[in-house]
Amino acid sequence: MAVNIKSGGDFSFIDEGKGKVIVLLHGLFGALSNWEYVVDYFSKNYRVVIPLLPIYDMPLRESGLEGLVDFLERFIDYKGIKDMNLIGNSLGGHVALIYTLQNESKVKSLVLTGSSGLFENSMGGSFPKRGSYEYIKERVEYTFFSPSTASKDLVDEVFETTKSIPKCLKIVAMAKSAQRHNMAKEVTKIKAPTLLIWGLNDTITPPRVAHEFNRLLSGSKLRFIDKCCHAPMMEHPEYFNNLLEEFLIEQNGS
């Protein structure tokens, strides 16, 4: 299934299916297509909504988690969503955590996969090497257990992004904002039922990060996927969808 990107109200997004709402948030180098398998599977029984986070479009002085959370709040209001199952990967998980703390009544359940918020190790911590395709290819492959998952199209997309100095500056600003905003003391306040789906071989947010989230988030469930790195929904979509479906049925009914 090719993702169908729509636009309206200054937003670009996916909005497929009907029923109880799932909102998906991509990461720093992510895109709407990262969730293609999730959209394809769940849009049969749920309404699946994915905003394109304005990581490269925000003014540099506003590039940070606060700006992304503000954007998400405006988007959710625009779509009129009152009750959602919120799912975030990597930086998107970090945004989901902050949004949940600030909008508890709108989040029925929370799912984090490779989320930042406690610790992350990524190339966003320093200025990405511009003009070096091999470097970008190596860094993109680093986020997957099997390097072959990093398709040429995906590497090309990231390479084109890093060729832009303004976009590189925003990537660095966003990554530093995430690193500064450690949520260890805040996440204990989250009461929404939470599922953690983690790659057992995650090099960006290692398994110890998942265990720490599991400890801090009261009543959370932790599920590891073997031979999987930072993007389980792309690397092992069938297994990821099965774990997610089981959790969503528990929270929403069949």
Characterization of this structure:
The protein is α/β, with parallel strands linked by helices. The two termini are 24 Å apart. Strand 3 (21-25), helix 1 (36-42) and strand 4 form a beta-alpha-beta unit. Helix 1 (36-42) packs across helix 9 (237-252). It has a single domain (6-252), classed as 3-Layer(aba) Sandwich (Rossmann fold), CATH 3.40.50.1820. The longest helix has 16 residues, at 165-180. It contains nine helices and eight strands.
What's the topology here?
Elements: E1 6-8, E2 11-16, E3 21-25, H1 36-42, E4 47-51, H2 65-79, E5 84-89, H3 91-102, E6 107-113, H4 133-141, H5 152-162, H6 165-180, E7 194-199, H7 207-216, E8 221-225, H8 232-235, H9 237-252
Parallel strand pairs: 3-4, 3-5, 5-6, 6-7, 7-8
Antiparallel strand pairs: 1-2, 2-4
Helix pairs in contact: 1-9, 2-3, 4-5
Average residue pLDDT: 90
Q: Write down the Rg.
A: 17 Å
Distance between the termini: 24 Å
Number of strands: 8
Major sheet, described briefly? Answer: 8 strands, mixed
| CATH level-four homologous superfamily name | Alpha/Beta hydrolase fold, catalytic domain
Identify the overall geometry: globular
Assign the CATH class: Alpha Beta
Low-confidence stretches are 123-127
List keywords for this structure.
254 residues, alpha/beta, Rossmann fold, eight-stranded mixed sheet, 9 helices, 8 strands, 39% helix, globular
